[in-house]
């Protein structure tokens, strides 16, 4: 699907895993069930669309020392990634 292709086209897939996709890196957290989590960044920010968008753009701004670097994405790219990530619930 186009949603996973957008994820795979970004630097995200170089560090994160999503089960059943081509994203199989193990540097960062596994995102297979990220939509089920109440908080992100080891509890630093709530898992809301706005907070997730900010986290995707610049995690160190929310959590100094976070290993995920700021990522230069367009608003449309961030919106697509947030929509996709918020759909990742293996129970659906």
Could you explain the architecture of this structure?
This protein has 3 helices and 2 strands, in the order αββαα. It is mainly alpha-helical and 92 residues long. It has helices at 2-8, 49-62, 75-85, and strands at residues 39-40, 45-46. The protein starts with a helix and ends in a 7-residue tail after the last helix.
Distance between the termini: 16 Å
Q: Which runs of at least 5 residues are low in confidence (pLDDT < 50)?
A: none
Strand content: under 5%
* Mean pLDDT over the full residue set: 91
* Percent in helix: 25-40%
Oligomerization: single chain
Number of strands: 2
- Shape label: globular
The strand order across the widest sheet is 1-2
Give a quick account of the main beta sheet: strands, pairing sense, barrel closure.
2 strands, antiparallel
As a whole number of angstroms, the C-alpha radius of gyration is: 12 Å
Helix and strand pattern: HEEHH
Q: Report the total helices.
A: 3
Structural class assignment: mainly alpha
């Amino acid at each position: 699907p186009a949603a996973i292709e957008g994820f795979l086209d970004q630097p995200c897939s170089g560090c994160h895993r999503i089960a059943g996709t081509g994203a199989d890196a193990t540097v960062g957290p596994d995102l297979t069930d990220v939509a089920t989590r109440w908080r992100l960044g080891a509890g630093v920010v709530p898992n809301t669309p706005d907070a997730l968008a900010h986290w995707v753009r610049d995690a160190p701004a929310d959590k100094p020392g976070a290993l995920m670097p700021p990522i230069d994405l367009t608003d449309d790219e961030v919106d697509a990634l947030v929509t996709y990530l918020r759909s990742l619930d293996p129970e659906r």
